[in-house]
Write a structure and sequence with these properties.
- By secondary structure, the chain is an alpha/beta fold.
- Helices cover 25% and strands 28% of the residues.
- Strands 1-2-3-5-4-6-9-7-8-10-16-15-12 form a 13-stranded mixed β-sheet, sandwiched between helices. A three-stranded antiparallel β-sheet has the order 11-13-14, with no helix packed on it.
- Helix 2 links the parallel strand 4 and strand 5.
- Helix 4 runs parallel beside helix 6.
Length: 335
């Protein structure tokens, strides 16, 4: 097998499902799920997922380019690697999802949607991730990078969303995120149904959802806009040094979620509203019957505003800045 993406889009398993190359062994585990194991021992295991939303194609193309280099047999592999193309049917249809938003179904939430094809896929991805982690040594370092692009434009073109965790984030992981060009990091304060929440909560992986730009169809992506992320991924996989001089990202915390609970839901933002748009205290952001979402703090930022989600799902996040951290970045006084 020479091209993971084309093989996945074909809807068929490769004629040969495993092999050994000069630097690694590879195994096709299931549709869009490929495991690569270096022949040299390593204590670092990395899961890279992309295409969890089928219309977010640039990360899939980036990952495929890197995997192609490895499958050509000329490039060493520095980590145990699991690659997961999340939703192949949605990728083939160039749709965010077919029936259910896959990135709301992890952590067993898929059990509530047994008739949805994405529910079965969430279960299979959970299973693949669990098997991968369990195959490693007890002291193995675990990272999970889930690559996405956003529906809307953004004041921060590239940013990471960090799952809720009681553990401190490893310094090398935070350094890697900066080197990958993340301009901002958003920290959740409660568990959720995303893939990175699952890997962080259940397997203590250092995990992040990386938003790398705007969603476009296959063939329309300008991959030069993703150069920093691609270079950082290459350094991680091939064992190269990260580029120096990356600026630390600004930090935000999730203050509240906007949820669409009925057909009466109205989001008071136009389609031109960018991620990280700031709103002053007292602004009415959304309403749903008797429920109204006002900005409660001096300034809040909005992330992922989307009025078209299914009932019961997130229609946006409200953020506040981590003022202490960001003041240190800009050299401001905290007094």
């Amino acid at each position: 097998m020479q091209d993971l993406l084309q093989q996945t889009l074909s809807g068929h398993a490769p004629a040969v499902t495993s092999g050994t190359l000069p630097h690694l062994r590879w195994q096709w585990l299931d549709e869009g799920i490929l495991e690569l194991t270096p022949l040299t021992p390593t204590q670092h295991a990395v899961a890279i997922s992309a295409g969890i939303h089928g219309n977010e194609t640039a990360p899939v193309e980036i990952v495929n380019q890197l995997i192609t280099q490895l499958l050509q047999g000329e490039t060493p592999l520095a980590v145990r690697l699991l690659v997961l193309l999340g939703n192949p049917p949605a990728l083939r249809a160039n749709k965010r999802y077919l029936r259910c938003d896959l990135n709301r179904l992890f952590g067993g939430r898929w059990q509530q949607f047994e008739e949805c094809p994405e529910a079965q896929r969430a279960w299979r991805l959970e299973q693949a991730l669990e098997t991968f982690w369990q195959a490693g040594a007890h002291q193995e370092v675990r990272w999970h990078l889930d690559l996405h692009t956003a529906i809307r434009g953004s004041y921060h073109t590239r940013f990471g969303v960090m799952p809720h965790s009681q553990r401190p984030w490893p310094d090398d992981f935070m350094h890697w995120l900066a080197a990958a060009g993340m301009e901002a990091l958003v920290f959740h304060r409660a568990p959720g149904g995303t893939f990175t929440h699952y890997s962080c909560e259940h397997f203590q992986a250092a995990s992040s959802t990386l938003e790398l730009g705007k969603a476009l169809p296959f063939g329309q992506n300008d991959l030069t806009q993703f150069a920093a992320a691609q270079q950082a991924l290459a350094a991680l996989l091939f064992g190269d040094a990260l580029p120096d001089g990356a600026a630390p990202p600004r930090r935000y915390r999730v203050s509240q979620q906007i949820t669409r609970n009925s057909e009466r839901f109205a989001l008071h933002m136009g389609p031109e509203t960018l991620n990280f748009t700031a709103f002053p205290q007292g602004t009415l952001l959304a309403e749903d019957g008797e429920t109204r979402y006002f900005v409660q703090q001096a300034r809040e930022y909005v992330l992922f505003p989307n009025p078209n989600v299914a009932t019961g799902l997130r229609a946006g996040l409200r953020l506040v800045e981590d003022n202490a951290h960001n003041a240190l970045l800009s050299g401001e006084s905290l007094k």
